[in-house]
Amino acid sequence: MKTSEHIIEEWLVINCQSGDRKALELLIKRWQPKMIRRVFHTTGDKAASQDIVQDAWITIIKKMNTLRDPGAFQWWSLKIATLKAIDWIRANQRDRKREELRETAQHDFDEDDKEQEETLSLLRQSIHQLPEDQRQLIQMFYQENLSVLTISRILNVPPGTVKSRLFKTRKKLKEYLETKILAS
Description:
Shape: elongated
Low-confidence stretches: none
Strand content: under 5%
Structural class: mainly alpha
Mean pLDDT: 84
Largest sheet: none
Order of helices and strands: HHHHHHHHH
């Protein structure tokens, strides 16, 4: 059952495809914050996120007429933004790794919360050890609270594949954490 939000969104998409600039403005106003959050979760860079989303909108506007199902706008637009973010990451991989190392080195632990902070640090490290695709999956599912179905549409894989990948990624994280905790 479609909610009124979905109906409004589909109506905006249809009007955008007909060349209605006001509908495009409203669609951008509705989706800009969501896309920026999505891209920021991917890149970790606020300034770059805004530039990437702007670039994504250019692509979305150019390809708007190729979208056959207006109800698919959510996953379609988020997929475009995600792919743009991944392209940016690949182009800036060395700089990003240096930044992550700098942030980790600057992190100051509070003595009262040291044990909890150490566990969180181990979890962050283990997440950073994951391959890019698994890290993205964890971010989409746990930080952005995207559904398995939405993730499957963004990644263009069946929902069962998303579930399987989540299971394998959780297992890998658990093994990594257990190894680190036993080594401490």
